[in-house]
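Dataset card, provenance and construction

Sequences and ligand SMILES were collected as paired inputs. For each pair, a complete structure of the chain with the small molecule in place was predicted and serialized as structure tokens. The example below shows a pair involving flavin-adenine dinucleotide. Curators did not alter the output after generation; any descriptive sentences attached to a record were derived from the structure itself.
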Amino acid sequence: MVIGAGSAGRYGAKAAAKLGAKVGLVETGPFGGLCILKGCMPTKAYLRSSELIGLLKKAPEVGIYPGKQVGIRFDQIKQRKDKLIAEMADDAHKGIIRHPNITLLSGRARFLSDKEVQVGDARYAAEKFLIATGSRAIIPPIPGLQEAGYITSDEALELESLPESMVIIGGGVEGTEFGQFFARMGVRVTLLQRSERILSHEDEDVSEALAEFLRRDGIDLRTGVREVMIERDQEGEWISFEEHEKVQRVEAEVIMLTTGRTGNVEGLHLEAAGVKTHPLGIIANDYLQTTNPNIYAAGDVTGGAQIVNMATYEGDIAGTNMVQGPVRMADYRVFPRAVFSDPEFAKVGLSERDARERGIPVRVGKFPFSDLGKAIITDRTEGFVKIVADPQRGEILGAAVVGAEASNLIHQAAIAMHFRSTLEEYAKISHIHPSLAEIMLYLVDEMIGKE
Ligand SMILES: Cc1cc2nc3c(=O)[nH]c(=O)nc-3n(C[C@H](O)[C@H](O)[C@H](O)COP(=O)(O)OP(=O)(O)OC[C@H]3O[C@@H](n4cnc5c(N)ncnc54)[C@H](O)[C@@H]3O)c2cc1C
């Protein structure tokens, strides 16, 4: 029995069904899961529109003058997104219902014991379970927030028109992507971030580059923010906060929260099944078993990286292990991920900062796009590539790309890492000239002193 038909649940159900199990897949919401309905796909559909606005602004640099005023039809942007995700959800649905070993059940599942769940009025028994119920936005206890009202990414994707101004609280991945989108749509955006840097878990040069991109798009970026509260006076509603010990006030039509997500465990009645949790979700081991070895958990609900490539990977492993016993172990060494800012940021494996904090000796190389032929001729010279390598053998342990096509370029490093390639080995691979991909080769050549 698989609970939740998002990315992790569908992959888990298919893996178990392929091995011959009879699988019940329970879904309480509209079919599709977060990635298709309210996550990766709708946001990236929106970002395509804001990316084009960015390109039009840069067009005069390459001799193209698109006119003074760029017209934005937000209703059309939303309709396009709605149509695309409906088609994707439909395709995913077909992929499940045509499967002979999978029965899709509609309703909210809740454990009655470690062998039985209730879905609506019906009860279903199973030998093994997979919990893949995803995540929900964390709502921080900000004074005055409930009275003032707020939106999360879910509602931001359903706005029918653009507000004039917006305060986004939280400078992580979502805050960065939505902030840039709305700013390019002409919304006055203020972004509040508690730490001194946005994307505070990343390397300092990465955070600084992305902050610069956001500022350039007109975002009023405030860092080191404390004591946020919503106040109301005769003039209207204000968001007040301390910024480096000084009290500041901003006005906004819409408050958007991008303060992280936590696993969906409420209402599952996990106690009945002997499944234990940590503050951000369900505890699972590397076989994706929970504290009850017959019950597995995968995807966002475990409170891990919360990216879809990890949800599908974990779902697949859990689905296999449910049928064959705990035979497959998750390996998190190579997991590329991206922030779809413009220009983008992507990384894989060990970062320079991780290495420093964990005391791992590494060799770090960095190469700017401004020294790359293809970047120069196509006017995409911002950003850099970094490689983190083992100082002795030269094995590539991690990479980061800030710049054009980062979410694609990072796969070169991911593939190299998968095969445990050294810098010397990588340098033997021929790259197309001129291409953005060459940046990786130039950096590797520099690191091994070959150029
Ligand atoms: C705005 C946004 C943008 C994102 N963009 C990206 C991106 O570009 N790239 C990327 O890799 N990741 C992105 N993510 C993250 C990605 O969407 C998630 O990591 C991934 O979709 C999680 O998949 P999942 O299967 O764990 O959960 P979900 O897809 O959320 O599936 C869980 C399912 O369980 C159902 N459910 C919950 N409780 C019950 C119950 N009791 N009974 C039955 N069913 C239940 C839910 O209705 C849901 O359909 C984004 C997330 C957000 C919020």
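Derived descriptions for this record:
The pocket of flavin-adenine dinucleotide is lined by residues 3-9, 26-29, 33-35, 39-40, 43-44, 108-109, 132-134, 153, 174, 264, 267-268, 299-301, 306-309, 311, 340 (CB under 6 Å).
The longest strand covers residues 225-233.
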